[in-house]
Amino acid sequence: MTRQTGGRTDPESAVECCSVPAAPDDDQLAADVQLLSALGNDTRYEALRIVAGAEDGVCVCQLQPALGVSQGAVSQALSRLRSAGLVTRRKEGRWRYYSATESATALLATLDDLRGDGSE
């Protein structure tokens, strides 16, 4: 309970009743912001959804017509998703295939659950 003195709240008693949980450290906050901002673009988000739904990975040439954007835009989107740790890339000859990480799959499942689209 806070105590008022002369119309003001006593700060010492306010701390006792209104403790604030410790904030995540700066590195954790930066990683979370990077991950969430990577999904803050329609092309990147849709690309991640397509990649996550693929069994064996997806090539840029497969994503381009599905997303309706240039090859450069697809490559840039995948690069940003990769930097955020949401997709991995493997090279086969001259082609690069992208797959969703476990973190991306879990994040998308959480979004589905929040929206009520989960399989439960």
- Rounded Rg: 22 Å
What order do the strands of the largest sheet run in, or round the barrel if closed?
3-5-4
Query: What is the terminal separation in angstroms?
Result: 42 Å
User: In oligomeric terms, what are we looking at?
Assistant: single chain
Q: Report helical residue fraction.
A: 55-70%
Count of individual helical segments:
6
Low-confidence stretches: none
CATH architecture: Orthogonal Bundle
What is the CATH T-level topology?
Arc Repressor Mutant, subunit A
* Biggest sheet details: 3 strands, antiparallel
Pfam family, one: HTH_5
InterPro entries: ArsR-like_HTH, HTH_ArsR_DNA-bd_dom, Metal_resp_trans_reg, WH-like_DNA-bd_sf, WH_DNA-bd_sf
Protein name: ArsR/SmtB family transcription factor
Domain HTH arsR-type: 24-120
Structure description:
This protein has 120 residues and is an alpha+beta fold. The protein has one domain: Arc Repressor Mutant, subunit A (Orthogonal Bundle). It contains six helices and five strands. The strands form two sheets. The chain has a three-stranded antiparallel β-sheet with strand order 3-5-4. A two-stranded antiparallel sheet has the order 1-2. A hairpin with a 2-residue loop joins strand 1 and strand 2. Helix 3 crosses helix 5 and helix 4 crosses helix 5. The longest helix is centred in the C-terminal third of the chain and has 14 residues. The radius of gyration is 22 Å and the shape is elongated.
Question: Can you describe this structure in just a few lines?
Answer:
GO terms for molecular function: DNA binding. This protein is of the alpha+beta class. Helices cover 56% and strands 15% of the residues.
